[in-house]
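yo, Fermitin family homolog 1 is done. seq:
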Amino acid sequence: MSSSTDYGSHTWELLLTVDHQHEGVEKEFLLQVTGDLHIGGLMLKLVEKMNISQDWSDYAFWWEQKKCWLLKTHWTLDKCGVQADAKLFFTPQHKMLRLRLPNMKTVRLKVSFSTMVFRAVSDICKILNIRRSEELSLLKQSGDTLKKKKKKDKNSKEPVTEDILNLCNSPASSGLPANPGLYSKTMTPIYDPVSGSPASSTITWFSDSPLTEQNCNVLALSYPNCSPEMLAEMYQPRSLADKAKLNAGWLDSSRSLMEQGVLEEDQLLLRFKYYTFFDLNPKYDAVRINQLYEQARWAILLEEIDCTEEEMLIFAAIQYHVSKLSLSSEAQDSTCESEVDEVEAALSNLEVTLEGGSTSNILEDITDIPKLADNLRLVRPRKLSLKAIKSYWFIFRDTSISYFKNKESAQGEPIEKLNLKGCEVVPDVNVAAKKFGIKLLIPVADGMNEVYLRCDNEDQYARWMAACVLASKGRTMADSSYQPEVQKILSFLQMKNMSAQAPSDPESVDMKPECFVSLRYTKKYKSKQLTARILEAHQNISQMSLVEAKLRFIQAWQSLPEFGLSYYIVRFKGSKKDDVLGVSYNRLIRIDMATGDPITTWRFSNMKQWNVNWEIRQVAIEFDQNVSIAFTCLSADCKIIHEYIGGYIFLSTRSKDQNETLDEELFHKLTGGQE
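structure:
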């Protein structure tokens, strides 16, 4: 027989704090518990003691000292390690969060603070009707990027709060997942592929979602630009070190918001983190395309990515066009004139897929090995002397370039053969000066071999540039993307040509050109000069539809040399100085911090394995041919770079054949790490 005192020695007091909104009701409760009491039993005891009639299904325990959720309700207090000194908060798992979208609009919605960020972003994207949520993530703005904003008056907070789009009636507000119907093949909301507005026949799909037609237009349409004064107050990176600060605040996808110090009503940025935009479809992706366009637009305006003056004028012309169409009621109300029956379109696509395009070319594509052969000029930079420029006969076959003294000697051994697989391809073009160059940075054992090719005209440049771009990715000219790549380059050159023409007198157009270019150009040119040059460039795109113009802007953004690079300041093992590491969708680039020149490139396709030593926070990577590197990250947590590498490898496994459900387990296996 055990006495009552023996029994009492096994029980202890645990202080619990309840996060509820009932006035006049206590928030702290002292319960007698035992170590073998499971978490679910503790919840039941607490709710019975409170005696408040409400739905507690979304509530869970948050352990303040350990910064973790106690979500496994079958675990006992002993197994969780909970003792008498633990501070447990009984709080809702879904809380209000403010998200600043790429178009600078702020939405307020309920988000799960207890699930991993990867899942939380997926639920957010379902509410906002953005497909492919794996390309996005949440970003905390660093203190440095907010410095300019802090200089504003206290009154400046008012317009921000007025501009918040409240989506608090989202399905997630009750702790339920977002409506999966949004993603089924038959119930995805359909958008007008011309204007991007929701098609009237399918707007009813939004009835169960907080995205009413009006709210959807706020997210899917681009609205008037900000003033130059407002642009001047925003953070603009001036160096690679500044650009590295922009990427320091990515949240860990494998941990919850609460575990990372995010509180209710905090503001985070929702941004496209991974620059591989899969399966963009104007019919279903109006919101996604618009947010992508906006992220690209702000990156250009704030000079987060470098571009030439010609390119800046092209971007300005497209922005002006988009702005004009967005403001016109025709763009918002029109329906696609050439609307094709869905079944007919699907059958047509199937027919093309089965036939593999034009039947007359099938045999030719199989038997012929595509090649290019032309007279080009070769430029090799030399230290302490002028560049050596000489004309040679070049042959491009598969993924390699060979060059010979002349056409007649092409049957013999080449002077040199350059393998372009894994190289960097950078355009070196000035249309006005008739300069069409291709800069190749070819990886070699001790760094990068720098070679310039000079073409004679636009057509030759487009063919050779497209071949170089594909070869750098390990693809040949036999690839189906070669001809579209050539056309894209020619179209881009044509736009540059229009912007390079002598500016004519600007018409009496209601344009504020300062809203479409970065501050550097507003200081360099007068308003009338900018207007004239933007209108010149606009002539070439004036017939484009709204969605087509946004997609063209995104394509032009993707063609910039720095596109898709996220920068971090690192210290390589054995090095005495800091370098910048650029992380892209298919490679890592070591960059000299002082000059901005690439030193070495490593391709993910050559990677054997990578791991992190969590004790010293060092990332170690092994590549083919016994190449290995190791570095510590100075501008951010090494987990962010580790997740970037794993995330890009995960995204490379996607295919159009699979449905839109993601292998979340594989993502966490590749990105989670073992701390």
